[in-house]
Write a structure and sequence with these properties.
The complex is a heterodimer of chains A (about 280) and B (about 180). Chain A is of the alpha/beta class. Chain A is built from 8 helices and 10 strands. Chain A has 2 domains: about 100 residues, no CATH class; about 130 residues, no CATH class. The radius of gyration of chain A is 19 Å and the shape is globular. The model of chain A has no long low-confidence stretch (mean pLDDT about 95). Chain B has one domain: fumarase (Alpha-Beta Barrel), CATH 3.20.130. Helix content of chain B is about 25%, strand content about 25%. The model of chain B has no long low-confidence stretch (mean pLDDT about 95). Classes of the chains: A alpha/beta (about 280), B alpha/beta (about 180). Bound molecules: iron/sulfur cluster. Iron/sulfur cluster sits at the interface of chains A and B.
C-alpha cells in the first residue's frame, strides 16, 4: 500500500488549472502549423496566424489563452494499491480548482444550479471522473472545457443497421451544424458504443488523446482520417469565414455495446484544446 | 487592408462595410452577455434608463477573465452570439450600431440588422489574449453581481474584427463558405 496525500493532489490540480489555461501542448501546436501550411484560403491563413500569435502571447503567462477558462474537468486514475491520506479526496480536488482559478486570475464560470444560475464564485465544483486501475500511482488530468464548443456536442442512439455510414454521417453533421459557433478549427472527440453515458464519456476522453498518434486500431485510424477529410471539405474554415481547416483532428474511442444499440457521441472542442496530466 | 473606425460610432461610418471586410475599432464599447442583455431589455421594458445609451453603441459579447494587478482587463475574446439573439433585435431597433461576437445569428437578428442599417462583427474566437491587448481601460458600470458577466465600459484601440452581417444583407458565414468551395472546384 503506497500512501499519497490528497494535499499533493490538490497542489497539482491547482497548478494544472493555471498551466492548462496558458500553455498548449506541442502536438496541438504542430497540428496547427501543419494545417496552416495546407490552408488555401487567405482569410483562413490569417485566422490561423492570429491564433498562433494568441498562443505565443498566452505563453508569456499573463493572459490566459481564452476568456472562457472552462469548467474544470478532472480525470483521476487511482491505482488500487494506493491509500489516500490527509482528508477527503473530493474536497481536495475542489480546493485545487478553487486555488488554481483564484491564484491564476481565471474566469469563474460555474453556476450552482442549472436553472437558478447563481455563480458559485470560485469555479467549483469540478467535473470529476474516477477510475480504479492496477498499480500504486495516481494519474491526474485537468482539462478545462469551454462551453462554446461543449454546446455544439451531440449524442445519438443509432439503430445497429445504421452501421459505419450512419456513424460517419452523424459526426460530419455535428461539425456542419456547429459551423462558426465553436471557434473553428475544432478538435472532434467521438465515442462509439457502450451505453448512452459511456459514449459521451468516451467522446470527452477522446479529446485528451494526443493528436499526433494514430489510433491503435487501423480500422478506426482510417475512419478518423476519412472523417477529418470530410469535415475539412465542408468549407466552413477557420472561424467559419470559409476555408479548409474546419477541424484539426478527429479522435475516436470505442467500447463493446448491446446487440440492440449503436450509441454515438460527438464532443466538440475548440482549437484551445487544453489538458495537462501528472502522475503521482 | 483593414478599415479603421473610431468613435463616435455613427451609422454612416458602418454603412459601406461589406461582409468579409476587416475592421479595426477604436473607442468606447460596452460588454454584455446573455444575463446582462436580459436585465438591460427588462429595464427598458419597465421604462427605466439602460446602463449606457443604446443609440450608436457597440456591444461586445464578452465575459473577460479577471485583470491581473496593474492591468485593465484579463483575456477578452468573444462569446457565442446566438445566446443574445432573443434580446438583440430590441437593442438594434433602439439604435445599437454594431454587435461584436462569434457564430451564427437567427433570422430575426439578421432582419433587425438590415432594417436598422447595423452590422454584426466577429472577433476571433479563442484569440482572447491577443484581444486583451487592445483594451486600454475597463470599468464595471452595471450589474456588478454578475461577475464576469457584468456590464463593462471598455476603451479599445484597433480591436480587430471581421464583418459578418453587413447593412445590406451580406452574410460572411454563407458567402465565405461558398466562395471557398467555388475556389477549389
Ligand atoms: S469555444 Fe473555445 S476558443 Fe471559443 S470561446 Fe469557448 S473556450 Fe474559447
Amino acid at each position: 500500500m503506497r500512501e499519497i496525500s490528497v494535499k499533493a493532489i490538490e497542489d497539482s490540480i491547482a497548478k494544472m488549472c493555471i498551466d492548462a489555461n496558458h500553455y498548449l501542448d506541442e502536438d496541438l501546436k504542430n497540428c496547427m502549423a501543419q494545417h496552416l501550411a495546407e490552408e488555401p484560403s487567405l482569410v483562413g491563413r490569417q485566422m490561423l496566424e492570429s491564433i498562433q500569435e494568441n498562443i505565443a502571447i498566452a505563453e508569456e503567462g499573463i493572459f490566459p489563452l481564452c476568456q472562457d477558462t472552462g469548467m474544470a474537468c478532472v480525470f483521476l486514475e487511482i491505482g488500487q494499491d494506493v491509500h489516500l491520506i490527509d482528508g477527503n479526496l473530493e474536497d481536495a480536488i475542489n480546493e485545487g480548482v478553487r486555488r488554481g482559478y483564484g491564484d491564476g486570475y481565471l474566469r469563474k464560470s460555474i453556476v450552482r444550479d442549472p436553472l437558478d444560475r447563481v455563480n458559485t464564485g470560485d469555479n467549483t465544483p469540478a467535473y470529476i471522473h474516477y477510475e480504479i486501475v492496477p498499480g500504486d500511482k495516481v494519474t491526474i488530468t485537468v482539462a478545462p472545457k469551454g462551453f462554446g464548443s461543449e454546446n455544439m456536442s451531440k449524442i445519438k442512439m443509432l439503430p445497429p443497421a445504421a452501421g459505419e455510414n450512419g456513424v460517419k454521417d452523424f459526426v460530419v453533421e455535428v461539425a456542419e451544424m456547429a459551423g462558426a459557433n465553436p471557434c473553428p478549427p475544432i478538435v472532434v472527440g467521438v465515442g462509439i458504443g457502450g451505453t448512452f453515458d459511456k459514449a459521451a464519456l468516451m467522446a470527452k476522453k477522446a479529446l485528451l488523446k494526443p493528436l499526433d498518434k494514430p489510433n491503435e486500431s487501423p480500422y478506426y485510424d482510417a475512419m478518423e482520417k476519412e472523417l477529418l477529410d470530410r469535415i475539412n471539405a465542408l468549407g466552413i474554415g477557420p472561424q467559419g469565414f470559409g476555408g479548409k481547416t474546419t477541424a484539426l483532428a478527429v479522435n475516436i474511442i470505442t467500447a463493446p455495446t448491446h446487440i440492440a444499440g449503436l450509441p454515438v457521441a460527438v464532443n466538440v472542442n475548440c482549437h484551445v484544446s487544453r489538458h495537462k496530466t501528472v502522475v503521482l | 487592408m483593414a478599415i479603421r473606425i473610431s468613435e463616435p460610432f455613427t451609422k454612416d461610418k458602418f454603412a459601406d462595410l461589406k461582409a468579409g471586410d476587416s475592421v479595426l475599432i477604436t473607442g468606447t464599447v460596452y460588454t454584455a452577455r446573455d444575463a446582462a442583455h436580459k436585465r438591460i431589455t427588462e429595464a427598458i421594458a419597465r421604462g427605466e434608463e439602460p446602463p449606457f445609451p443604446i443609440q450608436d453603441s457597440i456591444i461586445y459579447y464578452v465575459g473577460p477573465t479577471p485583470p491581473k494587478p496593474g492591468r485593465p482587463i484579463g483575456s477578452a475574446g468573444p462569446t457565442t452570439s446566438y445566446r443574445m439573439d432573443a434580446y438583440a433585435p430590441t437593442l438594434l431597433d433602439l439604435g445599437e450600431v454594431a454587435m461584436i461576437g462569434k457564430g451564427q445569428r437567427s433570422e430575426e437578428v439578421m432582419q433587425a440588422v438590415t432594417r436598422n442599417g447595423a452590422v454584426y462583427l466577429a472577433a476571433i474566437g479563442g484569440a482572447a489574449a491577443l484581444m486583451a491587448r487592445c483594451v486600454k481601460s475597463a470599468e464595471v458600470i452595471a450589474y456588478d453581481d454578475l461577475g464576469a458577466e457584468a456590464v463593462r465600459k471598455l476603451y479599445v484601440e484597433d480591436l480587430p474584427v471581421v464583418v459578418v452581417l453587413d447593412p445590406v444583407g451580406g452574410n460572411l458565414y454563407v458567402e465565405g463558405r461558398e466562395e471557398y468551395l467555388n475556389s477549389i472546384k
